[in-house]
Amino acid sequence: MSSIKQQLLTLCRQKVEASLADSENAIADARSAVHNETKSSAGDKYETGREMLQQEIELHMTRIAELRKSIAALDLLECSYNKYVGPGSLITTSIGTFYMSVGIGKLNLHGMEYHTLTAFSPLGKLLLGKTAGGTVLMNGKQIQILSVE
After folding, report:
1. Does 12 have pLDDT greater than 70?
2. How many domains does the chain have?
3. In what order do the strands lie in the sheet with 106-109?
């Protein structure tokens, strides 16, 4: 397994787990706020505040479910070398370097910038199954695949 790919996998896991912890803390805070909310003479204002907090809780619960799916996807990630682009691949292209894993944005490692993408993203779908030396066309722009690890 490439040490760069292993380090990127570790960074992905850390970023997803940090987001998971943030969402869990936000739910705890919102639940606490719901319980601490006191009914005022303006009943509508009280009900509106409780409803907004409930919606915030539901939003974070949805986010937590998505983050847990991302952790499961990271657990299944294959980081061994494969000449074809697939989950776990490190792809160097004419427009940047991509790590096919979970879509969590940019990662910086040893002064290099890596963009994460999933196999289901628009670019990920185009790259899937390709090899070094191949090209894909996205938004009218030709992208050359320089290497696949």
Report:
1. yes
2. 2
3. 106-109, 112-117, 96-100, 90-93, 141-148, 135-138
